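Justification of computing resources. Each target in the renewal requires a structure prediction run like the one illustrated here; the chain below, 243 residues long, is used simply to show the kind of job we budget for.
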Amino acid sequence: MEENSVTLDERRRTVVCVGACGGIGAATAQQLSAEGYRLVLIDARSDADLAPVRERCGEGSHVAFSCSIADAEQVEAVAAEIGRAIGVVDAVVNAAGVFHFGNVGETTPEVWSRVIDVNLSGLFFLIRALLPQMRRAPYARVVNILSIAALQGFANQTAYCASKWGGLGLSLALAEELRPERIYVTTISPGAVDTALWTGTPAFDRSKMLRAADVANAVSYVLRQPEHVAVEDLVIKPSAGVL
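Resulting structure tokens:
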């Protein structure tokens, strides 16, 4: 740990919340804001789209960046700005993601690349870029919100499953690599969550799905754990099953 590190009781804990405009990301940002964290909000959508999230979280306490995590240069630039503006990052919550429903023949190379770029490469770009800021904290956490699709296959979701399985492999390797630096990696793999991700897909009973707030509660639980506790994997499902 660097000599200029600071202790937790000297400042508010800072969480970078990625995918802040989405259902899970927005719910997580609101909950963490209510619990007193200082937030850095990141989303690929515009500043105008981020504005309502900032307002609900308390605009004066938070910083927001429009940034595609699939673009390594954008991510590096935002990470540098976070370093200059805040300096220390205690946690990164990755809630960004894209979804494609369609069989293999309907999955074009462009669609495949988009899903892999956001759901897998984006995790790598972001964590790599923010490591210097996390290393300045007494200890830090990375929470990657994956999916039950990281653990089992689903028809018509080949690209999505591949990206989430890749995200699981990345997370497991990072957990071992970063543990000696007191940076702890958690995966949260929820079953179906009632968000806009399901819009336009074949009919599912969304009333039986998890709510975004359920996943936000799981994130809050992980971040509340003391340094000697590493929560490495959480699987949460609707009471009726995966879907």
